[in-house]
Amino acid sequence: MNEPGMTTAPAGAPLPATVADSSDEQSSKLYGLLAEFETPAAIYTAAQSVREAGYRWWDCHTPFPVHGLDKAMGIRPTILPWLVLGAGLTGLTLGFLIQWFTNATSFDLWALVWVRGYEFLVSGKPMLSGQVYPIVMFELTVLLAAVGCVTLMFALNKLPMLYHPCFKSERFRRASDDRFFIIIEARDPKFYRNRTEEFLESLGATAVEELES
Amino acid sequence: MTTLTVDNTFDDPTRRAPLVLNHHEFGTVTEKICSVNEARRAPRAWYIAFVISLTFLGILGVMIMYLFAAGVGVWGNMNPVMWGFPIINFVFWVGIGHAGTLISAILHLFRQKWRTGINRFAEAMTIFAVICAGMFPGIHIGRVWVFYWMFPIPNQMEMWPQFRSPLLWDVFAVGTYFTVSLLFWYTGMVPDLATLRDRATTRIRAIAYGILALGWRGSVRHWHRYERAYLMLAALATPLVLSVHSVVSFDFAITLVPGWHTTIFPPYFVAGAIFSGFAMVLTLAVPARQLWGLKDFITMRHLENINKIILVTGSMVGYAYAMEFFIAWYSGSLYESFAFLNRALGQYAWAYWIMVTCNVLVPQIFWFRAARRSIPIMFVACLLVNLGMWFERFVIVVTSLAQDYLPSSWGYFTPTWVDILTLLGSFGLFMTLFLLFCRYLPIIAIAEIKHTMPEADPHGHGATESHAAEEGTA
Fold first, then answer.
1. b vs e for B140-160, b when ≥16 Cβ sit within 10 Å of the residue's Cβ?
2. Spatial contact of B460 and B85, defined as CB atoms under 8 Å apart
3. pLDDT tens-digit readout, B158-194
4. Is B164 near chain A, with CB under 8 Å?
5. Interface contact B218, partner A, CB < 8 A
6. Model-level pTM?
């Protein structure tokens, strides 16, 4: 871990790598390195190597979900299913409460305005009905779970985010077409401009370029 | 790229049939599908169809304005047939929607990868069909300016909806169905919108698709959550497919009208809905694949699979028709027996036999392999199925209401010109939305198609090898 010190070494230091590092430090706008791969198999093995090399702030970008790549990257299972379960149970409860309060009770409640439920007697049927209530409860369960599922998925992904450094790269446009990319961010503790570039090239990247933040 | 056509309709279980023909690579898949949206001009047929659709949409607008100005008396709805065309059309359009959700949700859960060729526009079809469906009860309520009484909104009148009414369940069922279908459609489309954004050549396209794509950048950390979310949406939408038309059938089954009050209604309605929906999918898919040259993605195998589903669900519907008759007789109920004999032999027998011919007899042609693979035959058959399913709803709604218990209160329903033009106008609305969708949004799930190609497997053979293998089977 002596290399952060080396980047601050005076110009004309013996190693050319150090010179490059210090010059990048001056621009201080480097977001990371973008490496391009041509096949799913190439990025799969490359991702395994990046993970084994101990990088933490990095990501793969693919035009479609490459099977098993998330596991190869060491991505932990998402919490999303539990949140969706919560949203669904909220819908279930809400479905019951709405029907019960509006059609089977007679007390006041403050829901932005004061509202009152009333006992809505239809054909002498019981107020609390096991036949009638489940339909609306089911619909609201599905509704809230689905809305929660989509909004929380995008929220956890920090989307919408219309700007990102990778969009500056002309090459990156093919990430939604037929190319596969690895981005290692400059803030990663193991990131060194030249060493990381050589590392990415050694993994079979067809091109490596800098991304400005 | 060779132009060799590979036949993927073989039935050899030891070989996996390719879902994308003609040796596409990822890049050419993108190119081919995006060209539908990126062409400077749409095919001439698109413009012709669009003008016709817009005309009918205009007619719909005029009919609705006339309705609002004059009241529901402009329709043929009368005592005792109070429901008439609006409810027939509502049930018809909701049914059409079901195929889209079945394809996107149930086939996804069952890992039916062939769905990827047709799921996007089947889902679009669902949404537009549900828009048409939702319109009809909306304008049928008469006093449209108090439509919000259908929702449990706190109000100064201390008035709540009545949750024991199946009509209110419909509000929740159709509302949920529309919302979930829309979310499913849009979520699936986000990566493809990003593709269109990245390929945009004009600023307007870049901004429009850029906003719609939400900044999607294909991150695997995003894909990971995205795939989980998509799977959960499929799991949530699956019971929804079965529930929506069940709830719609409750509108009928919960009442005490002979011919409606039967327990077979929910499954019978769901089967009919899927049946009519697939027929509509084919009605749209056949011209679309022809027009934009998408035969490599919507292959003959896809069409053949759809025809098989039409055969199965059509036979289920036929079974339901027969079982209704049996139970009507077996129940010993005078009114029930009369209702069904009256359907087949009474004043609406013509509608009943159109229904039986189109829905039960016509699909039987798909027992023959040659018919399942013949474009003209399947297209005509599907048009007839669409017609037959509309008449099914006509028979159910009108015959039971026109002649129920007391002969003194019987009647004969005749639609007015407003009824007929509103029905035709709803097709204008549907087709206008669908044609706009075809022009401006990715009509085939690009990312999903790539995912099903053999080259997409990181552990499998490389791209060139798979091509060689495919050529070997040709």
1. beeeeeeeeebebebeeeeeb
2. no
3. 889 999 999 999 999 999 999 999 999 999 999 999 9
4. yes
5. yes
6. 0.89
